[in-house]
């Protein structure tokens, strides 16, 4: 993008010659940037990827990545980009762990397509399978006995594989639904290829078509953090449980989940989103084989390098639970749970001070992992704008806080989703800035006082 801009400049320069000063050009450059940005924003749903790249670049230019917690003075200028759920918060923990999870791979290693030819999932590294089983046992969040484990390039690929597996025998496109507010990627991923096998039908609560359907149950839910169950409950329904956030830093682990098809991902478990590793626990062998088939057709398996790294990271997480008292910050879940607790406290304080916003209220639950009661600490804040503000995303954008509008999640734009998993510096800047946005009404009252 920078290259594009400078070449645009030089072309302008040649045509206009010395009449234009450097200052003119700077103004022009701003105009080009703003119009480019607006075009991108208008086309946002279609070119979300471009926006992602764009906003990440902008973020790097403004809030420089930092691992320290240092006090940040906010001049209100830096863009705070909390649109994506990029789990960079966890970097700090893994830095502290030093070389514990370093993996060295020689050039001659892992050159074959195959990992475990006798396994139903022939591209699954046995080491990863072992660590997945172990971690679920340590945490107690899912049953693995009598389940087939299928590894995927992120749980995003497994989601697509599951849609294929569950609909491949259907005579007409299967309806795919999820209760609003639903994860914003579901509709886009489901319909991106205009498949003849399945079709996005929106909010499960409003679903009234007859025939077989697939209901996505995300629990705890992205974006709002609530624990969920299926809502359509008709015969002919197949459930996919997306349990990306069913981990003890986010929500009380109340029971080992034992649904027919469950999806997990390292990105939300340990923060290693860039490894692109997810796994499915599948009860039915025929469905598991079809999920494997899809991954075979789409990517002929899953990066072995990533699987081995994932295995090492999961092993470190399980090991850490075994050595220290689980609540200590040396343990992975101790660190992440404490971070989430303090972040939610700071956020609720800021929201309270501003008087404009509101957040969901959660019922505390007993967690078998921590052996105590606590309130859910979701990976996203589902913030509602009050004070008659209809478009919360635009309102916050005016304060240079980038969030994702409720309309992407199938609900009103008075809501936004805000990532709670960014680095300390960004998060601290965010709560500081949020707390300074005051309700006009409250300000008038304070003035009268
Ligand atoms: C509910 C849910 N499922 C799946 C994913 C995608 O995970 P992955 O990075 O493994 O593709 C996300 C990521 O935000 C998510 O929130
Ligand atoms: C659907 O089934 C779930 C799980 O058994 C239950 O918790 C929920 O209340 C049911 N919902 C409706 C609308 O019947
Ligand atoms: C919000 O502020 C009010 C008044 O200052 C206080 O009584 C209340 O407990 C606060 N609530 C939270 C959640 O902090």
From TrEMBL:
Keyword Transcription set for record: no
GO biological process, one term: amino acid metabolic process
Cofactor: pyridoxal 5'-phosphate
Gene3D superfamilies reported for this sequence: Aspartate Aminotransferase, domain 1, EGF-like, alliinase, Type I PLP-dependent aspartate aminotransferase-like (Major domain)
Superkingdom of this protein's organism: Eukaryota
Family: Belongs to the alliinase family.
Name used for this protein in its record: Tryptophan aminotransferase-related protein 2 isoform X1
């Amino acid at each position: 993008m920078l290259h594009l801009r400078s070449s645009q400049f030089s072309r302008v320069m040649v045509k206009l010659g010395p009449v234009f000063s450097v200052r003119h050009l700077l103004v022009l450059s701003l105009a080009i940037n703003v119009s480019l940005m607006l075009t991108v924003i208008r086309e946002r749903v279609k070119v979300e990827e471009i926006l992602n790249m764009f906003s990440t670049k902008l973020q790097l230019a403004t809030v420089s990545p930092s691992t320290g917690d240092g006090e940040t003075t906010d001049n209100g200028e830096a863009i705070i980009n909390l649109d994506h759920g990029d789990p960079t918060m966890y970097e700090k923990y893994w830095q502290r762990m030093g070389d514990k999870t370093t993996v060295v791979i020689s050039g001659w290693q892992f050159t074959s397509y195959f990992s475990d030819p006798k396994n139903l999932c022939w591209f699954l590294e046995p080491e990863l399978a072992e660590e997945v089983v172990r971690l679920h046992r340590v945490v107690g969040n899912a049953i693995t006995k009598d389940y087939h484990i299928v590894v995927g390039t992120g749980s995003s690929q497994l989601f697509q594989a599951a849609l294929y597996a569950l609909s491949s025998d259907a005579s007409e496109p299967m309806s795919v639904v999820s209760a609003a507010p639903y994860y914003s990627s579901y509709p886009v991923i489901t319909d991106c290829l205009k498949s003849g096998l399945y079709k996005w039908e929106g909010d499960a609560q409003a679903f009234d078509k007859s025939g077989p359907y697939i209901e996505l149950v995300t629990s705890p839910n992205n974006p709002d953090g609530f624990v969920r169950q299926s809502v359509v409950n008709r015969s002919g329904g197949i459930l996919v449980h997306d349990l990306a956030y069913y981990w003890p830093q986010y929500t009380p682990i109340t029971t080992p989940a034992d649904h027919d098809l469950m999806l997990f991902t390292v990105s939300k478990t340990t923060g290693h989103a860039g490894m692109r590793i997810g796994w499915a626990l599948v009860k039915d062998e025929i469905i598991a084989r079809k999920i494997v088939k899809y991954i075979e057709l789409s990517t002929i398996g899953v990066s072995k390098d990533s699987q081995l790294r994932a295995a090492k990271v999961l092993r470190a997480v399980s090991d850490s639970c075994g050595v220290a008292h689980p609540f200590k910050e040396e343990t992975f879940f101790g660190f992440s749970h404490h971070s989430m607790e303090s972040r939610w406290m700071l956020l609720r304080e800021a929201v309270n001070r501003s008087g404009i916003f509101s957040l969901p209220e959660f019922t505390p639950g007993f967690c078998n992992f921590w052996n105590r009661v606590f309130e859910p600490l979701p990976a996203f804040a589902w913030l509602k704008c009050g004070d008659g503000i209809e478009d919360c995303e635009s309102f916050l954008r005016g304060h240079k806080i980038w969030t994702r509008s409720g309309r992407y999640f199938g609900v009103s734009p008075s809501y936004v989703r805000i990532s709670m998993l960014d680095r300390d510096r960004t998060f601290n800047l965010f709560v500081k800035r949020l707390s300074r946005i005051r309700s006009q009404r409250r300000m008038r009252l304070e003035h009268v006082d």
